[in-house]
Amino acid sequence: MENNTEENVYNKFGPLAVLIGALVGGLAGATAMWLFAPQSGRRTRAQIQNKTIQLRDQTTKNIKKAVAQVRTETDKLTAGVSEKAGELKQLGQDKLVQQMDRVTAALDAGKTAVETA
């Protein structure tokens, strides 16, 4: 019966206890960090600012590089599509000429049949 009571207490206060423990642990960690910091806050802020600028510049460089790659691939795809469209157009024209030749041949055969009849 005792275990059941402990489980009820844990279920009732478990999440709250975890939250309080995390809050106390976070405050203790922040206090320890502040007390044992190897440099001044001004220097730390300057380092954070420099790292932020470096990160921004690196991100900008990577984005420009990605955009250039996308443009290159888009140009390749566009050129490929244009080439295929030209090939299909030529194929269509060739088929049209073939059909026109067949129709002309059929008309000539029809005229010849009418003339000889």
Describe the protein:
With 117 residues, the chain is mostly helical. The protein has a domain at 59-117. It is 94% helix and 0% strand. It is elongated.
Write the layout of secondary structure elements.
Blueprint: H1 2-35, H2 41-116
Fraction of helical residues: over 70%
Structural class: mainly alpha
- How many helices in DSSP terms? 2
Major sheet description: none
What's the shape? elongated
What do the pLDDT scores average to?
A: 83
Distance between the termini: 117 Å
Instruction: List the quaternary state of the chains.
Output: single chain
Concise account of the structure shown:
By secondary structure, the protein is mainly α.
Describe the structure using short key phrases:
0% strand; 2 helices; mainly alpha; 117 residues
